[in-house]
Amino acid sequence: MSAAPQLIDSPNPAPPVPGETPSDAFLADLAAESQRLESATPDEILAWAHERYAPSLAMGTAFGPEGCLLLSLLPKLAPSTYVFNLETGYQFQQTLDLRDRICEKYGLEIDMLEPELSVPEYEALHGGPLYKTDPDRCCHDRKIKVLQRAAVGRTAWMSGIRRDQSPVRAKQPIVAWDRKFHLVKISPLANATKQGVWTRLLKEGVPYNPLHDEGYPSVGCWPCTQKADGSGDERAGRWAGNAKTECGLHTDGGGI
């Protein structure tokens, strides 16, 4: 591994307080750091994020291959990171079981953040499963609003998205200001490829969701996830039958 990129010697501009617009100096600093980290490895980016933002650094994971790889690196490179999963109540049992395997193997604590209403309460309120009639509202209520609550008191959060996953994610910076959640957003695997992630995952024996071996390229909530359709699109199995390809965590100000 090459030497980790050196941190800028000058003081970093302070992040904005909640409700405050980030300063030009703060945004310029993030852009400069993002550009500098373009040549860094995921390991180096994790170490940089921890050095700069711990103990107010968080990581969200849905236990995809990318998230599992990052989770395997946290104990060594970013041990104080607060890790959470958005437990919508609609996750596959295989996903929940994977969470237990990851925690046991790497000694992690992963907070399962739930919406205010349980699935039965939520469906009763809306006269049935809202994912059938208004999936955008379902994602907003059971993911976006939960993360907005979790963001309080944090400075930065990390995700496992890659630029080559979809056109929506193609312009994701390594470091950016996330307007939606009022956090610095860090994407250590932005430059990674699917093949690169899976090669390392298998080489290092990192647990992953067995649904990937059954034809699911991307795993989310079970009502909105299907097997691959043969197109080669990693997101094709999500919200099949409509134009929706994202839950909203990484769009509309999510660092893109």
Automatic annotation (TrEMBL):
SUPFAM superfamilies: Adenine nucleotide alpha hydrolases-like. The active site is at C247. It is an enzyme of class 1 (oxidoreductase). It comes from the Bacteria. The keyword Zinc-finger does not apply. Catalyzes the formation of sulfite from adenosine 5'-phosphosulfate (APS) using thioredoxin as an electron donor. This is Adenosine 5'-phosphosulfate reductase. The lineage of its organism: Bacteria, Pseudomonadati, Planctomycetota, Planctomycetia, Pirellulales.
